[in-house]
Write a structure and sequence with these properties.
Layout lengths: L1 H15 L7 H17 L10 H22 L2
């Protein structure tokens, strides 16, 4: 999820906030132009996390949520 949030932050800062849009269609065109420009030099995503690291984070989140639920039911 973080990479998606980062990408939307980039498009917001680099394109959307810098412009003035007279209509929704103009805004959509600006976003499409930005995406087309972004994709010209696209590179495939490479996941650097190991399976064990991902599963450890999942277990940690599960444990944390379980503790929060238990604490809120007291």
């Amino acid at each position: 999820m973080n990479q998606i949030e980062i990408w939307f932050g980039l498009i917001t800062r680099q394109s959307i906030r810098r412009g003035t849009f007279t209509s929704v269609n103009v805004l959509i065109a600006r976003i499409r132009d930005y995406v087309a420009h972004w994709n010209r030099d696209a590179e495939p995503f490479t996941c650097t996390a190991t399976t064990d690291e991902i599963l450890a984070k999942v277990r940690w989140v599960q444990t944390s949520i379980k503790q929060l639920v238990e604490n809120n039911t007291k």
